[in-house]
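Hi! If you just cloned this repository, the fastest way to understand the data is to look at a raw example. We've pasted two of them here, unedited. The first protein comes first, obviously.
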Amino acid sequence: MDFTFTEEQQAAVEAAKAVFSDVAPDRAPSPALTPGAVAEDIDRQLWNELARTDLLGLTLSPDHGGAGLDPIALCLVLRESAKVLARVPLLESCAVATAVQRYGGSTLAAELLPRAGRGELILTVGANGRSGHDPAELSVTARPYGESGENGTSAEDSGWVLDGVQSAVPWAQAADWIAIPAHTAGGRPVLALLPRTRDGVTLADQVSTSGERLAEVRLDGARVKAHELIDAPGCWEWLRSLLTTGTCALALGLGERVLAMTAEYTGKREQFGFPVATFQAVAVQAADRYIDLRAMEATLWQAAWRISSDAGGPLPTAADVAVAKIWASDGVRRVVQTAQHLHGGFGADTDYPLHRFHAWAKQIELSLGPAAAHEEALGDLLAAHPLG
């Protein structure tokens, strides 16, 4: 496979490296030392810098003030963001904006996308459902009200009513709009977008493994206008695939940074007069983790390419996304576990950032489903689309 990136994609990486070069992983309090969330808000300084360098509109078309690049470019930037544990909703906001551009109507796109690209509007999405184990769209119902033409009702007065719960919504307290997957009476999945402050929407604080604020978003008769609901076939499935693939990019970037930290430490730490990196047992473990990262990288770009190109294949795109998440979840867990082992007691020192990476890795591993969930999904896809 040829994973050569275009000049525009490489330029996005260089811009991202420049922005993230001044970000320290310990910019917020340690999750190990903080009983609740590590911070009340996102890293606004970093968010504004991403907006200034046009990285928030990376996947938006020039018509909306964006760069017109594809999800591969977004994954490249996400990979860099994870190396510094960037506390910004880069994945969620960009993924939702891209889905609105691809599937939403012109009114909704004009309302949200230019401002999202400039960083003036933050978007997030509830992708975990009520428990994190069932499809997210099943946790919220959408029923129509005031359909156009009924009793003289105009199109402006028609819309949908949402009822249900989405748990563990990332960065919800800082977001301006939240994308909510839901299902209609006929079982059709839809995607609704509504302001966080709209009547019928309440947020309850939750805290992630990494110490970041999440929210349980409860919808009790929350109304969305007709143009704020996207019922185009495949919209939610595509957005969830993009979110999952973006999570794989975060896992890869974090794992690469952790392995580099481990190599630096074991190259300096001496026992019996020699650097521990020269010991065979240490070298073999590090080599195994390097292989994990290369597998994570290959499967990530395969999934990102399928999403970006809409290319066909013997299996649906969801299969490539599942394979990427299996490797990302298992791989990032093994990388941080080996790093903790090879660092010895120093790895548990809260003045050293490794424990932060470990907490973020666990959050990423389980986000949008652990490896076991995607193995089950892949098995279903193979059963439905037999090869050979």
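Ok, and the second one:
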Amino acid sequence: MTDKVLGVILGGGQGSRLAPLTQTRSKPAVPIAGKYRLVDIPISNCLNSGIHRMFVLTQFNSASLNKHIKNTYHFSHFSLAFVDILAAEQTPENPTWFQGTADAVRQTMHHLLNHDFEYVLILSGDQLYQMDFKEMVQAHIDSGVQVTLATIPVNAKDAPDFGILKANEQNIITSFIEKPKTNLGDWISDTGPEMHAEGRDYLASMGIYIFNKDLLIKIFAENEDEKDFGKEIIPRMLTEYDVLSYQYDGYWTDIGNISSFFEANLGLTDDIPKFNLFDSSHSIFTRARMLPPSKILGTTLDKTIIAEGCILQAKCIKHAVIGIRSRIGVGTHIESCYIMGSDKYQTLIEIEKEKGTKPLIGIGDNCKIVNAIIDKNSRIGDNVTIIGGAHLPDGDHALYTVKDGIVVVKKGAIIPDGTVI
């Protein structure tokens, strides 16, 4: 069954809501959970579901993403499996860049049609979830529909942020509204006893679609002005075709902004996290790095995830995610932080050469950092204080950005000794 499916992962636009993390990289390339990239999530879900042919569509800052996929996803010469990047390209037929999710698929359709498939599974590159797509594909086939939309129950607080829909007893979608602001009571659905008990009474679109190949070709030929699946194509499909709602009741979050990104990462440190990195049936694949084990010297650790290759001499690390090759100095206190780590180790010669001129890559001695994201390759000196929280106004500065009380130190930033934020 899954051999008939082609996966298409949407790389997203400029990712301005995730800035400054997307200043030099695309959204799917943003590091998550200390050692992965966001794009690893949909790719791993596909691989775990037996879908081994995928295209990743990207447009902005794609160099980092290209490098990651090239170095990560290698398959046997005797396999048809692949994960390929399709970057936006100008052609005589399409002189513009991607104008939306549907336009991205439309403009790359000629590449997709070089392969043999019956169904297209369209996924977002910036969501965190573990889902078995085999079940969704089977539901699509069994129902006889040509379009299936993955949906998830949400509560009244979150409903205005999503496309909300209602379905009949056969799970065929009967109505849809984009980001409703009023009259939410009219959109309550029967999401099941367990979901109702949690107050999750509304069915929201997850931005995950299955289309029959022939229908997708027909849609694109009918109206080239439709640029977006969620805003234009799906609402039109509801008036012309039966569209199946496939309800997913597991953990899912949209990594749309800094606060949701921050919460999703720190949520991994919970005693029983909603997103389970330790589930062997839903493995998350990423680049295999030949790194040494992490070394910890005199540090008190609590609710912390530590990736490979770290050297930690901090006094205390609490409620934090520590990324690959992180270096944290003596006496430093880290709390409620995501430290992304670095792309390389400094040699002893480099350390000796830079001593006294600028901080080393990593975090220095006797620092206090709370409610912060430290992007890769940052250099934070000694005696630095970074305390995020509601007391800080939002703002973009040369070395850091503040959003929703979270301080985001920019990639490669140099924070001098004694700095207070």
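That's it. A detail worth noticing about the second one: The radius of gyration is 23 Å.
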